[in-house]
Amino acid sequence: MDATKDIVPNWKIASPDPVVTIGHYCEPFPVEMIIRGFLTGSSWRTYKNGQRDICGVPVPDGMKEHQRFAKPIITPTTKAVEGHDEDISREDIIKKGIVSESDYRQLEAYTYKLYERGSQMAAKQGLILVDTKYEFGKAGGKIYLIDEIHTPDSSRYFIADEYEERFAKGEPQKQLSKEFVREWLMANGFQGQTGQVVPEMTDEYVKSVSERYIELYEKVTGNAFVRTESKDALIRIENNINAFLKSYL
Question: Which end of the chain is more exposed for a tag (fewer CB within 10 A), N or C?
Answer without folding.
Answer: C
